[in-house]
């Protein structure tokens, strides 16, 4: 028997500053998960948006009058921009995009793997407003021969030996006109724990690239080298990033685009339904921007599949809600499954495992009891 | 008044420090108004069970992350814990040698292995400090405190001291011990041992702050419910425990060596100025010591550097820093102290 408090991840709700009650994974540095019911809304409220930091020295105080975003490196004229500069001197752009942790749903991996034991709540959908990274880089003037652009935030490593958090994109990706330096999330300032005052937005890519409290952009004439690209956040280079516990892939690559996935929001696990009233099964589907084409649900353990009704698209990087009315005829335990198809012809795998617990996107199942 | 000026100066220094950290070089003049957005983090650190290897675990791991990083995980076999501990040392610089790493793996296997707690007695769960984890409310209030007025006028002093001793006996001796050496009867069951009040000098700012707010992440509660006059008397008594014997004079070379060592090894937690204000500090419970407010005796400081402080993020440095360097570091740490005694009586 484990002593009290040491059992595995019983949902414990806690309140952090500027946040509503979220599921506590860790307190220092914080990892907080969004409870499932918030996904009944298309836009995840800022105060319910998940939180994940890597290093203990997270920013807790920022003076926007002295804060500057620095753009340096392989550029013609390095820049030092305040948040007001970004707001006043650049065209504002806005887009809705899913921000999903690489390790979302890790707790469902079998065999289990170490890391943040997230259920499905290490994700959220928000309207991000800011400036195009391309515009900022163009102002600085990227020199010929630039290869990568690296990004670092205000968070700091607790020990000199701990690698500071930094991520990189290729210069072409950084200049694609979609990657954004955001100063607003759902129309207001970002919460401190979600990256106030600035956050990199990399639509269609995993949240590890969405550097929080962004303070430094560095253009490099060569490939970026750093722990968080070269050693951490790597996936097997195999199909679906799949590997076997007793036969690990030999080649890995940095994690990158979101894969196709679909999830249940209702019913919640363990929810009991009545035969008397029709029920609307509801959930979400998204990918890296190819576009959700069809979502199917099975209520008979994959014997047959029904096409669900899709809500209108909110943008190619947003998630898309699907619904299916269901009135089961008999009292029983049902296993529901959901699978999505996108315009690129991708399908979700039946099974996925990798050592880091990344990119889980298997065909979801949920049990529901009908009374 | 001097105390007030002194804390005002520290506040200024802090602002300068923060400014330096959150801004980057700019040609434009820095605005003379501030627009600060800040939060105060709460703590939800679990109290870890007592089992062999616990001290090694607390020292090497909990400096950088809450033990919740362990208890959140599913129970893992020893092989997985070995891999994780190895990764934390190799990739993240967790301060542990081979022997300590083995002790940590032993500990993790016992408290969170696949046969959980099989090797530990069931009653070993350490529940001595159910309230030690500071609530968010307690955190909010820790920012400020009233400066106590510690008597120094001679006639008044003797009376204050005996009154302070009586109040101490009644309220503090249970933990800190009748001789104030941190060895009261309650200390046996405490995870984070009460301070030995004879082993260091504490300035008025420190005593005021601690008596008013308690120390988050420890069993030291807030005493603000006592009459202010009683707090003044207790503070005077505690100061009297440490006769002001003249410290050794360190050579400039020693201090320079100590400075370099401090900035490399200590500043990440204790701050560049040694005042306990670092990027990591707000997230730590108990917080790193403000060395401007506490002056450990030389021998005590050497012991701390050698052994660390159990139950806190302060690790042992004996495998990282040589004994002669630890002496230089101790001398430097002692040089940081700032007396904040109120001297108006003189």
Keywords:
heterodimer; A: 371 residues; mainly beta; Sulfite Oxidase, Chain A, domain 2; Immunoglobulin-like; 2 domains; 5-stranded mixed beta sheet; 4 helices; disordered N terminus; B: 346 residues; mainly alpha; Cytochrome Bc1 Complex, Chain D, domain 2; two-stranded antiparallel sheet; 3% strand
Explain this structure.
- The complex is a heterodimer of chains A (371) and B (346).
- By secondary structure, chain A is mainly beta.
- Chain A has helices at 83-89, 133-140, 171-174, 227-230; strands at 13-15, 21-27, 30-33, 51-52, 61-63, 69-73, 79-81, 92-100, 123-132, 148-153, 166-170, 180-185, 199-201, 214-220, 234-236, 252-254, 261-266, 272-273, 279-286, 292-298, 306-307, 309-310, 320-326, 332-342, 364-370.
- Chain A is built from four helices and 25 strands.
- In chain A, the strands form six sheets. In chain A, strands 7-6-14-10-11 form a five-stranded mixed beta sheet.
- Chain A is globular.
- Chain A starts with 12 loop residues before the first strand and ends with a strand.
- Chain B has three domains: 54-124, Cytochrome Bc1 Complex, Chain D, domain 2 (Orthogonal Bundle), CATH 1.10.760.10; 136-240, Cytochrome Bc1 Complex, Chain D, domain 2 (Orthogonal Bundle); 252-335, Cytochrome Bc1 Complex, Chain D, domain 2.
- Chain B is built from 13 helices and three strands, in the order H-E-H-H-H-H-H-H-H-E-H-H-H-E-H-H.
- Chain B has helices spanning 2-22, 54-61, 68-71, 78-92, 98-112, 136-141, 154-171, 173-176, 204-213, 228-240, 252-270, 298-307, 323-335; strands at residues 36-38, 200-202, 294-296.
- In chain B, strands 2-3 form a two-stranded antiparallel sheet.
- Chain B starts with a helix and ends in an 11-residue tail after the last helix.
- Classes of the chains: A mainly beta (371), B mainly alpha (346).
- At the A-B interface, strand 2 and strand 5 of A face helix 1, strand 1, helix 3, helix 4 and helix 11 of B.
- Strand 5 of chain A pairs antiparallel with strand 1 of chain B.
């Amino acid at each position: 028997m484990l002593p009290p408090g040491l059992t595995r991840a019983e949902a414990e709700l806690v309140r952090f500053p500027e946040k509503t009650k979220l599921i506590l994974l860790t307190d220092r540095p914080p990892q907080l998960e969004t409870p499932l019911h918030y996904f009944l809304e298309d836009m995840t409220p800022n105060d319910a948006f998940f939180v994940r930091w890597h290093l203990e020295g997270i920013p807790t105080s920022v003076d926007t009058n002295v804060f500057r975003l620095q753009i340096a490196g392989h550029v013609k004229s390095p820049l030092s921009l305040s948040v007001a500069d970004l707001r006043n001197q650049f065209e504002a752009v806005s887009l809705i995009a899913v921000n999903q942790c690489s390790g979302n749903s890790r707790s469902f991996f079998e065999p289990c793997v170490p890391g943040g034991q997230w259920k499905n709540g290490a994700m959220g959908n928000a309207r991000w407003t800011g400036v195009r990274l391309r515009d900022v880089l163009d102002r600085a003037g990227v020199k010929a021969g630039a290869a990568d652009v690296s990004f670092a935030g205000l968070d700091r490593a607790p020990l000199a030996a701990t690698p500071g958090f930094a991520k990189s994109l290729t210069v072409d990706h950084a200049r694609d006109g979609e990657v954004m330096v955001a100063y607003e999330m759902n129309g207001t300032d970002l919460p401190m724990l979600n990256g106030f005052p600035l956050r990199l937005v990399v639509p269609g890519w995993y949240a590890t690239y969405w550097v929080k409290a962004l303070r430094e952009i560095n253009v490099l004439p060569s490939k970026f080298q750093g722990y968080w690209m070269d050693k951490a956040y790597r996936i097997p280079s195999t199909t679906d990033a799949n590997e076997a516990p007793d036969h690990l892939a030999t080649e890995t690559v940095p994690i990158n685009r979101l894969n196709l996935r679909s999830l249940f929001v209702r019913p919640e696990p363990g929810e009991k339904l009545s035969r008397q009233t029709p029920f609307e099964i509801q959930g979400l589907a998204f990918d890296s921007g190819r576009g959700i084409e069809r979502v199917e649900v099975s209520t008979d353990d994959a014997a047959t599949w029904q096409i669900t009704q899709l809500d209108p698209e909110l943008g190619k990087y947003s998630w898309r809600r699907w619904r299916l009315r269901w009135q089961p005829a008999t009292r029983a335990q049902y296993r529901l499954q959901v699978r999505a198809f996108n315009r690129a012809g991708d399908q979700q795998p039946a099974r996925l495992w990798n050592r880091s617990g990344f990119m889980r996107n298997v065909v979801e199942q949920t049990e529901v009891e009908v009374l | 008044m001097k105390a007030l000026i002194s804390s005002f100066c520290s506040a200024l220094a802090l602002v300068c420090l923060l400014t330096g950290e959150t801004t980057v070089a700019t040609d434009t003049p820095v605005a003379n108004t501030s627009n600060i957005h800040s939060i105060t983090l709460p703590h939800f650190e679990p109290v870890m069970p007592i089992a062999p290897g616990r001290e090694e675990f607390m020292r090497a791991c909990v400096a950088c992350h809450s033990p919740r990083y362990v208890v959140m995980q599913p129970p893992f076999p020893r092989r997985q814990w070995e891999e994780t501990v190895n990764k934390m040392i190799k990739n993240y610089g967790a301060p542990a040698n081979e022997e300590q790493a083995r002790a940590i793996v032993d500990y993790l296997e016992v408290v969170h292995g696949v046969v959980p707690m099989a090797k530990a007695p069931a009653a070993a769960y350490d529940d001595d400090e159910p309230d030690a984890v500071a609530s968010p409310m307690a955190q909010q209030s820790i920012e400020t405190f009233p400066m106590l007025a510690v008597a120094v006028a001679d006639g008044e002093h003797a009376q204050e001291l005996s009154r302070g001793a009586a109040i101490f006996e009644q309220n503090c001796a249970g933990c800190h011990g009748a001789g104030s050496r941190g060895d009261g009867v309650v200390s046996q069951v405490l995870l984070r041992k009460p301070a030995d009040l004879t082993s260091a000098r504490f300035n008025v700012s420190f005593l005021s702050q601690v008596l008013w707010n308690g120390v988050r992440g420890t069993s030291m509660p807030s005493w603000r419910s006592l009459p202010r006059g009683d707090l003044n008397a207790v503070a005077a008594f505690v100061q009297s425990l440490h006769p002001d014997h003249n410290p050794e004079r360190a050579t400039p070379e020693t201090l320079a060596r100590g400075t370099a060592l401090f900035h490399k090894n200590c500043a990440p937690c204790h701050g560049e100025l040694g005042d306990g204000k670092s990027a990591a500090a707000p997230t730590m419970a108990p917080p790193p010591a403000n060395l401007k407010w506490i002056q450990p005796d030389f021998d005590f400081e050497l012991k701390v550097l050698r052994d660390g402080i159990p139950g806190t993020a302060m690790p042992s440095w004996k495998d990282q820093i040589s004994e002669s360097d630890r002496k230089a570091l101790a001398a430097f740490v002692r040089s940081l102290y700032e007396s904040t005694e109120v001297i108006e009586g003189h």
